[in-house]
Write a structure and sequence with these properties.
Blueprint lengths: L2 E4 L2 E3 L4 E3 L11 E5 H9 L5 E5 L15 E8 L6 H11 L6 E6 L6 H6 L4 E4 L2 H8 L8 E2 L8 E2 L7 E2 L1
Parallel strand pairs: 3-4, 4-5, 5-6, 6-7, 7-8
Antiparallel strand pairs: 1-2, 1-8, 9-11, 10-11
């Protein structure tokens, strides 16, 4: 079962549904569309939309529509496919997207801190270990980093390149 997690904890009333041919959003739900469908709806003037960015998609195509997007779901189809890290980072740093970015797919506990640093702020989690550890508030990671990220962090002392999570 998929659960949505944010840094504040698990979300119980998430209304977002990824639309497919088999699954459509109901009356109390909000649809996440594939990139092509999203652009068609955005060109028609719809706002408050959700968009799914798959690994091979060009995230820069969203630039003219940023004001119409409520949620961007970046897909991690396998633990070894990290293109969604780049998508999230580009959305935050180059495109200046300030809305919600959600990781979907193969979300593992070891990757969550790195996803947070790239600007992802919600997670569709199905992995049993990840669900257990997130429920316990046990995130792995390193407190000090040598590179800036999409998520602001505090400076750690005398070195301009050292940051604290």
């Amino acid at each position: 079962m998929t659960q949505i997690w944010k840094t504040t904890g698990f979300v119980t009333d998430d209304a977002w549904v990824i639309e497919t041919e088999e699954s459509q959003a109901g009356s109390n739900e909000r649809a996440i569309h594939g990139l092509t469908t999203f652009i068609e709806k955005a060109d028609a003037g719809e706002t408050g939309l959700g968009v799914l960015i798959n690994p091979a998609d060009d995230v820069s195509r969203l630039q003219p529509y940023l004001e119409q997007i409520a949620l961007v779901a970046v897909a991690f189809p396998a633990f070894n496919d990290g293109r969604a890290f780049s998508h999230a980072s580009l959305l935050r740093s180059r495109l200046k997207f300030e809305g919600e970015i959600r990781a979907i797919g193969d979300v593992l506990i070891d990757q969550v801190p790195l996803m947070l640093r790239c600007g992802i702020d919600s997670f569709a989690v199905t992995n049993a270990t990840a669900l257990k550890r997130l429920g316990e508030g046990r995130l792995p990671g390193i407190d000090e980093h040598y590179q800036p990220t999409a998520r602001p962090s505090a400076e750690a002392g005398s070195y301009s390149w050292r940051r604290v999570s």
